């Protein structure tokens, strides 16, 4: 029995609401599944339960677990006590399914398990007028151009005679007349408008907005001063204050005291006004801190006349030294006194308020301009869907009909990954539960782990989890539960994490600072294999570190052929060298949204070619074309062509060089002649072809495909060319200079059949995953800091919380103290999150965790001296634990190696050989004119939409991947995000992708759970000559016939089977009649498939059938 069995059992009570803290590896998804199953058995309709997740992958995994559990409940009870609990819950659901005619196996979409984005889109579409959508808006793949258009429209209003124009003028003057900077900062704010829009709109209706905002500032100060008073009793505080007053009386008129400190000392003029917890005493506290602490925050060691304690007053000096000695032993008090200097002022200055008022006036207009852009473009971002969902629900006081309908139907709400909830998402939950009351039978179940809250860049606020643990959600009381068992990692990993992370994370919870204390786990697995290994290095040599990663990967794979390995990095920029070394070592790996498409050489070459064709004056691109592998001119030849001529284009200079006999080398001349003729022919075709065809034909003629070295390179080239299709305008680009920007968010995807055991990804992407071996390289690197924003804001959790706004400082002015306070607060929250990010990375490991990092070494007379890692790096967080490993390593490493400079990697130029020729075309076949027939076009799809056909295509592709993977029991839960991306590429509208992906996953699950389906895939008996999506073309009866067979193979009896998958479903009665009708409908198509196959295998017997995976039905169709 697990250490938290009582909590897990308690969590299944269907009458109570809970918030569950579930650390890494604690079986959170299984608990959610069990809770969902328990609730299903109590409701009249499955739709009365809503589960919200934050990723499509999590939603798919949960849905699949529920469906598979219900299906498994038809079989015998498992022996495992853990599995038996799920089996019993699913058995009750199965009985309810039959009794209440739900037919969940046939209609899995009745299980309402959605991402938060999908729920927002659903709500916005249900009431488009209230939501303000009018017509449906498609999600924008890249919304930044929409933000730019809105910012440009807003700035164009400068010439108006309006208050908005006046506010814009004030902002532009404040930024030093930089309209470009204003536009850029406005875009950044629009991308985060869900965080501030509601507050700004509400502020516009406030009678005393300034007073309300300043009250929040004063509450923040009061909270800190209350903490200080708790660290100092009245006697101690009075003693410190008297000493500060004494020092001030001696320093107030002294020379050499800066103006800032002099103003603070003025606060000591009233000796009886001892600082308290009230915010108006902040200046007294600051004066006290300036007397006791140096500028770096450490306490003074001694005092002199310059400190305000002359020798003429030995008694006061003795008291001060005693107080400093006492203070030196109190690290917490020192830290809190030092933090006083970072607190905001309790009120806004007049200059601050004037700019803030201008911002509060301009930003709602910017949002209105953005909504106009959304409507005109027919696209919007996900934030807009979230905002309009809230609008469609109304308020708690005035709910809409949609909110009332949800309130009537919704009985139980489950929220996964609650630690990643934002304020806007919390607003949504509050509105969904606004009509709930204690004891009405409705429940809220929130699960998460605050130690894994790592999505601040998506506005996740870990303080909300801590707040709900203490206070609940408005009128819904939540009982907190804690899980402790870890079912993922071996004992050595868990013991290491339990030992190290109390020091990495905060000792206490602090919602305002985003601080979370560590909660230890208990190993549920008996294994003592593996552990944590530290790999110190002292050279700044990325290549050496990448090779070390490759060696660790190779060793791990050699030890166990079934091992899974993950290389986790903090940023995509850290992975380039590692990926190249894995390629060089011929290690198959999968990069999850980490290898940017623009980083692939083939795409860089294609981008240069595109820009060169579009703009003859783009010298950089033309030089890149001549340097690319299809030409491969040397740097000397390139310099000979260009010289110092800046007036002519590279194309003109190349023609002159070829006309001269002594400019280029013989090799360079031969290469340049071939490429120049191809480029001239291409330029003559400008405007006659689509941009994609123009670039692709030129690339083929240059020999681009012949320069590729991996099959994935062709996929990358195809992805680039498809993107050109989407962004071209009449064979051109609106702005060729922004081509790279438009490609920046595209990532190279592995080939579908590449199911590698090694994965490379960011730590953020690894959330929710697990691997036998985890490698963490580059722990010494710094994470990216916060960028400058036009306005900073922060929301303070709690009853006395609120929102605080601070405008950016004026151009050329000193730092704004309020802006600086929020900036420091955000920096502190980022530092706290850095520790949680490290926790997520470490807890992905099941058996082995490898830590790689570098520190600098200083050469001294005594030998090598270690420098501590930089603040802001993960290695600094681990330094107390790993320092000894570095010290022992530096002592054993040869002295000359420690200070050797890193070797410069040699660069090898790759290019086509001079003798290269395009492949010769096949011998021409002379034939009489014939008609071309596409078998798929023969069927009238009156019942199936194009979306259904694309679903079928992807089901075939995914099943083919599983078969090629060769696993005995392939996983039925592919990556949902990837499915949605591939469905979109096939042409499925974005708003239908999620539902279509559900159908793909359901079809795969049903196929793998069906004996007939497993036979078709060769998982239950051996098959030969098996192919999926086999394309065949042949000629008979004077007609060219082509078609794609979903699945074909030869069974154990030597019979060739042709099987067509049908991913439709049938509701209602008459199933046999439906199947018979489908068999008649597709008989001619299958007959022609059989005839095509006979052309290739004339002596092989052929049989054909239709297979319906969603219904687990099979119908053989007779063919001649």
List the helices and strands and how they pair.
Blueprint: H1 5-10, E1 18-21, H2 28-40, E2 49-53, H3 56-72, H4 81-99, E3 112-115, H5 116-126, H6 128-131, E4 138-139, H7 144-155, H8 163-174, H9 179-190, H10 193-204, H11 209-231, H12 234-251, H13 259-266, H14 282-292, H15 314-328, H16 331-339, H17 350-377, E5 379-380, H18 382-393, H19 401-409, E6 412-415, H20 423-432, E7 443-448, H21 462-471, E8 479-482, E9 485-486, H22 491-504, E10 522-523, E11 531-537, H23 542-559, E12 565-569, H24 576-584, E13 590-591, H25 601-614, H26 619-627, H27 635-642, H28 650-659, H29 666-683, H30 691-702, H31 711-727, H32 739-743, E14 758-762, E15 771-776, E16 791-796, E17 802-807, H33 817-842, E18 845-854, E19 857-860, E20 863-866, H34 874-892, H35 895-898, E21 931-934, H36 946-965, H37 976-986, H38 990-1009, H39 1011-1016, E22 1024-1036, E23 1039-1050, E24 1056-1061, H40 1071-1096, E25 1102-1108, E26 1113-1117
Parallel strand pairs: 1-7, 1-8, 2-3, 2-6, 4-5, 6-7, 9-10, 11-18, 12-14, 12-15, 13-14, 15-18, 21-23, 24-25
Antiparallel strand pairs: 16-17, 19-20, 22-23, 23-24, 25-26
